[in-house]
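Quick one:
INPUT:
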């Protein structure tokens, strides 16, 4: 068990993960680009460390949860970055969704510092974290995965080791490409029913209580009827993941036709000003093509 857990990236997901670590009794030191967002966690017992180098120096295990590869480089690189604070015996766990190649490159740089790295992206939302149902897919050394599993299980319910460095990132990309494809198919079904004379509310009720209703659709499907109060996974974030999937498809010679089409509807959503909306806005992009305006 780590003496001190460091956490960089206190957005919606990161904050909920830290809350669970605190609730489990861990000493947590944290950093976020915007300190004001960390105030509730500081009030709950988290300690502040700035810059990320200082956090890595103070922690036995360091976590990151940031938006993309560029954001990851921003907190790991340079004289004030996480890498500068890592040393022998420390473990660095990146839970962000980034390209496998970027993750493997970072793991090699971590090793040069005498530390070890795991890529451990997650499946779930803030609701999943609060309920303790988050799952991790972990790439890196198996012994390192075993070492941090007790801490990961203080955050979520399941830890699955999937292979060497970058394999956790690859598995997350493979999982997330389903989100866009499912949302597009659900939108098609909704619009077909609606244009045939069935109310959107009734169509959603039937679909979300049928065999096609995945956990993601049960959670996000209602967003086509009314926008969520808090946007957790935007059009831009979803498209980032689909573009990573398409890149991997080209590299591995795997055709991803449904991913490609879903990506185009995310582009359409961005084109009509919905980039910051939940990616359920794919429905609105398709609705406009269908002549359905609300």
């Amino acid at each position: 068990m780590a003496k001190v857990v460091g956490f960089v990236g206190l957005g919606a997901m990161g904050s909920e993960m830290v809350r669970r670590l605190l609730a489990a009794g861990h000493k947590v030191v944290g950093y976020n680009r915007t300190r004001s967002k960390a105030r509730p966690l500081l009030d709950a017992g988290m300690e502040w460390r700035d810059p990320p180098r200082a956090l890595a120096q103070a922690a036995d295990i360091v976590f990151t949860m940031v938006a993309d590869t560029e954001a990851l480089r921003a907190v790991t690189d340079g004289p004030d970055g996480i890498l500068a604070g890592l040393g022998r015996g420390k473990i660095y766990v990146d839970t962000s969704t980034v390209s496998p190649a970027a993750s493997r490159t970072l793991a090699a740089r971590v090793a040069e510092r005498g530390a070890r790295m795991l890529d451990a992206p997650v499946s779930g939302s803030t609701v999943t974290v609060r309920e303790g149902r988050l799952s991790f897919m972990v790439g890196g050394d198996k012994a390192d995965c075993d070492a941090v599993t007790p801490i990961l299980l203080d955050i979520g319910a399941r830890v699955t080791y999937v292979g060497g460095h970058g394999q956790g990132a690859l598995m997350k990309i493979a999982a997330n490409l389903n989100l866009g494809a499912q949302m597009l198919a659900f939108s098609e079904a909704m619009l077909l029913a609606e244009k045939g004379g069935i109310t959107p509310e009734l169509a959603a009720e039937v679909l979300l209580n049928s065999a096609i209703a995945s956990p993601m659709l049960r959670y996000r499907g209602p967003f086509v009827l009314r926008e969520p109060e808090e946007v957790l996974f935007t059009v831009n974030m979803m498209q980032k993941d689909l573009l990573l999937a398409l890149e991997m498809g080209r590299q591995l010679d795997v055709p991803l036709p449904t991913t490609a089409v879903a990506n185009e509807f995310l582009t359409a959503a961005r084109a009509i000003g919905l980039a910051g909306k939940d990616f359920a806005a794919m429905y609105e992009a398709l609705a406009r093509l269908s002549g359905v305006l609300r």
